[in-house]
Amino acid sequence: MTNNDQYHTLINEICALSLISTPERFYESANFKISEVDFTLQFQDRDEGRAVLIYGDMGALPARGRDSALLALMDINFHMFAGAHSPAFSFNAQPAVCC
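RESULT FIELD:
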């Protein structure tokens, strides 16, 4: 089993659910749109360990309640923190293609 076999399995399963017949084209960088949210998945194999990076572009923050949305992100991060390599949410004011 290679280091990215589990990642390929994940991509294969997402493609099967999405009725995409050629999952191999998503192995390097996978871009999907789910419920109007753009997601990009990438596999990283580094000395520190393996990881799947998931970027989700959920659009601009709401004009009203912007501070509440940012506080909610901080609160989610607090509850997800379990030490090194914990998942985290963040905000990027400059929308761009991540990968």
